[in-house]
UniProtKB/TrEMBL annotation:
This is Pilus assembly protein CpaB. It comes from the Bacteria. Residues 19-133 form the Acyl-CoA dehydrogenase/oxidase N-terminal domain. GO terms for cellular component: plasma membrane. The keyword Oxidoreductase applies. InterPro entries: Acyl-CoA_Oxase/DH_mid-dom, Acyl-CoA_Oxase/DH_mid-dom_sf, AcylCo_DH-like_C, AcylCo_DH/oxidase_C, AcylCoA_DH/ox_N, AcylCoA_DH/ox_N_sf, AcylCoA_DH/oxidase_NM_dom_sf, Mycobact_Acyl-CoA_DH. Pfam families: Acyl-CoA_dh_1, Acyl-CoA_dh_M, Acyl-CoA_dh_N.
């Protein structure tokens, strides 16, 4: 097993970047190296999600450089980076062990608001997103309307001075922390089920909203059900035109599927997996080493593919198929890595908490808690091929594109 380059050393990514991007990468790496607290980096690297206070504190640090919303133009308060700069930033963000910043404000509702929202909505909501002060959640999926989102049944009835909202959302990530929610609701009937859907923004403290936790298989609470009972949405909570919500949702999901590969996090895991494999005596296990070499090659191919797609620009034919290709590759690589880590841990993977923290003290100098959260990450990671559009749907999109150019 050959280790990758040490932090700061040139790697294969540098070979694909020009001088300006390499200098930008060094600047980002140096800033993040000083910005991420060691205890946060340790928790994230060991497979645990950052806490809300850790995320808020980190967002405030990013705000000092204007880096909270890397995809936003200067006109809207962002850094105005190119696609490749965003790739480099996301790469270094993940490799630094920084908290995962929820995308709901910066990558999802923010672009919808500054593209389709009113001047009043921009003035009200965008500053809180850019400062990191406002937490958002996404109200799209419903029981019976996940992959087939257009079948949603939540309704917003026009009552003159407000809309009356009734219905339910499910799998709502971080709703327990959120200050605001953006959601889809049916306001009208149409010839197709995609018609008559509108896009709303709403404060989570509005009377009639109830959040119920969903404890996932990893025994953590990140998902929720959200119920709406006679919730009054002010008329200025409607974004854009009534009945255009499906178009805005497609625009939003296009933003969501950029930067989805998490190559930096995967690269970190591979290097840590090599350390673990040595400590567990797997350096001579031919089957394990073959699988490790295969997943590392797949990751390198995905990194190169993402850079190639970003370099081609949004008008290239690959811009239509690229997100689905990367979504498929990313889910497969993440799940393979998570399974290999659990395999390398062996029986120790079953232990949690204090018992596990001392289990590695005598293993080749690995620190206590090394990959302590791996089992939970493995279990939750089974959903990587479902959320954001299932692997089956991504393959269907690619097949339609290949067969007759439609999606």
């Amino acid at each position: 097993m050959k280790d990758g380059p040490k932090p700061g050393q040139a790697d294969h990514i540098d070979l694909l970047l020009d001088d300006d991007l390499r200098a930008f990468r060094r600047d980002v790496r140096a800033f993040l190296g000083a910005a991420v607290p060691p205890e946060t980096r340790e928790r994230v690297d060991n497979g645990y999600a950052a806490t809300k206070p850790e995320i808020v504190a980190f967002l405030k640090i990013l705000a000092t450089r204007g880096w909270v919303a890397p995809g936003w133009s200067r006109e809207h308060g962002g850094p105005g980076w190119t696609q490749l700069q965003r790739f480099v930033f996301n790469l270094e963000l993940a490799r630094s062990g920084a908290p995962t910043v929820p995308p709901f404000g910066t990558s999802m509702v923010g672009p919808v608001l500054y593209t389709f929202g009113s001047a009043e909505q921009k003035a009200r909501y965008l500053p809180g997103i850019l400062s990191g002060e406002d937490f958002w959640c996404q109200g799209f999926s419903e029981p019976g309307a996940g992959s087939d989102l257009a079948s949603l049944r939540t309704r917003a009835e026009d009552r003159g001075d407000h809309y009356l909202l009734n219905g339910q959302k499910i799998w709502t990530s971080k709703a327990q922390y959120a200050d605001r929610i953006f959601l889809l609701a049916r306001t009208d009937e149409g010839e197709r089920k995609q018609h008559g859907i509108s896009f709303f923004v709403l404060d989570m403290e509005t009377p009639g909203i109830e959040v119920k936790p969903i404890i996932s298989i990893d025994m953590n609470h990140s998902l929720n059900e959200v119920f709406f009972t006679d919730v009054k949405i002010p008329r200025d909570g409607l974004v854009g035109e009534r009945g255009k919500g499906w178009d805005y949702a497609k625009f939003l999901l296009g933003n969501e599927r950029t930067g989805i590969t998490n190559v930096g996090r995967c690269r970190n895991q591979i290097e840590r997996l090599k350390r673990l494999a040595r400590a567990r005596g797997l350096g001579s296990d031919g089957a394990f080493l073959t699988e490790l070499a295969r997943v590392e090659a797949d990751l390198t191919a995905m990194e190169i593919t993402e850079i190639r797609l970003l370099s081609a620009g949004p008008g290239a034919p690959s811009a239509l198929t690229g997100p689905s290709i990367l979504k498929l590759q990313s889910a497969q690589i993440q799940q393979t890595l998570q399974a290999m880590i659990v395999t390398a841990l062996g029986p120790m993977a079953a232990a949690r908490g204090g018992e596990f923290l001392s289990a590695f003290e005598d293993l080749d100098g690995l620190p206590p808690g090394f990959f302590d959260g791996a089992v939970g990450e493995y279990l939750f990671g089974r959903a990587a091929s479902i959320y954001g559009g299932t692997n089956q749907i991504q393959r269907d999109i690619l097949a339609k594109m290949a067969l007759d150019g439609r999606a």
